[in-house]
Amino acid sequence: MHGKGQGLSMAKTIGVNLSERIAVGLVIDHKLAGPVRRFPENHDEDDALIELHTEALVDKIAELAGMVAGGAKDIAAVGLALPGLVKDGVVEESPNLPQLKGARMRDLLSAQLKARGIDAPVTVLNDADGMAAGLASAHGKLDSMIRVWTLGNGIGYGRYPFAPGPWEGGHTVVTLDEKERYCGCGGHGHLEGIMGHRAMRLRFLDMEPEEVFAGAKKGDPRCVEFKRLWHRALAAATATSIHMSGPSKVYLTGPNLHFLDITMLRLYMQEMVKMSPLQSYSLEAVDDVPEMRVIGAAVTAEQAAGI
Questions:
Q1: Is 1 inside a domain boundary?
Q2: How far is the C-alpha of 130 from the C-alpha of 152, rounded, in Å?
Q3: Which CATH number covers residue 143?
Q4: Would you give the end-to-end CA distance of the chain in angstroms?
Q5: Over 90: is that where the pLDDT of 59 sits?
Q6: Residues 11-18, mean pLDDT to the nearest whole number
Q7: CA separation (Å) from 194 to 71, 149, 175, 232, 254?
Q8: Taking Cα atoms as reference points, which of 150, 123, 168 lies closest to residue 250?
Q9: What is the pLDDT, as a whole number, of residue 6?
Q10: InterPro entries from the entry (predicted)?
Q11: Residues 245-300: pLDDT tens digits?
């Protein structure tokens, strides 16, 4: 899939990750070349993007892309990773950045980039898929299928290589208990309704998630029970994915990774995946490095452009 010809090794691509902040980097040979540009630069302003309308967001992305390009005219492709359901360059749903719903981000960004002298194909993808592509590149698995769970306020599910489909793995149904109504989408029994940070705060109105898992370590029965539910839910969603599309490397990352007991998760997985051909999966916890999504967006754009 990826040889080391001169054209590929020196291809210049730009990766963009749009989440709480905008992060943009120049990527050469699947590695960052120079610093990542961010907006806003101040961590205390992480909610600033919610206040910007779509055109202003796109303009800021193009401005940062022009900065990292440094006047280069040979940018081969641009990848934009963002939270939401994306189809053919259009954001069909984006709960975290609601102003993007319905936005034709591929066309909008292409036009703004051309105005700044960057005439390159733009690929728009879900940020969880960007993380998957970045990890595949970093771990030498560009010829393999991998999955990534990002554990945070929501639960992101990424897959590499890219395949059409919503891939909203965080909304996998993992329980039929009618009381499980904590998912932000309003659905019952969802993985995110158990594991998501927002959902945990709704469930334990008298405790923060950190206090719940600390209580589990001290043997508090209520907290121990939830810790088991949390891990069984993740195991159930992962096992369902394996039964549907086969085994692979499964990475776990995100701001709530510190809640994970990977030994407990493995034990629950062993209970749920019994067919021997499907047992060749493996689980690995990795730090959530924001730059990984920038690289992943660039790698995906490169592949989409056939470079």
A1: no
A2: 16
A3: 3.30.420.40
A4: 10
A5: yes
A6: 95
A7: 47, 14, 10, 10, 16
A8: 150
A9: 38
A10: ATPase_NBD, ROK
A11: 999 999 999 999 999 999 999 999 999 999 999 999 999 999 988 899 999 999 99
Measured torsion, CA atoms of residues 226, 227, 229, 232, in degrees rounded to the nearest 10: 180
Predicted pLDDT of residue 47: 67
For residue 46, name the pLDDT band (cuts at 50, 70, 90).
low
pLDDT for 106: 98
Domain encompassing residue 213: 133-285
10 contacts 28 by C-beta, under 8 angstroms? yes
Q: Is 155 helix (H, G, I), strand (E, B) or coil?
A: strand
Residue 37 backbone class (left: φ over 0; alpha: ψ -120 to 50; beta: rest): beta
Dmax over Cα atoms in the chain, in whole Å? 62
For residue 25 the two structure tokens come to: 């980097």
Residue type, 148: V
Please tell me whether residues 154 and 120 are part of one structural domain.
no
Cα distances (Å, whole numbers) of residue 155 to 170, 190, 199, 206, 268:
5, 10, 11, 23, 19
For the entire predicted model, the pTM comes to: 0.86
If one counts the domains in the chain, the total is 2
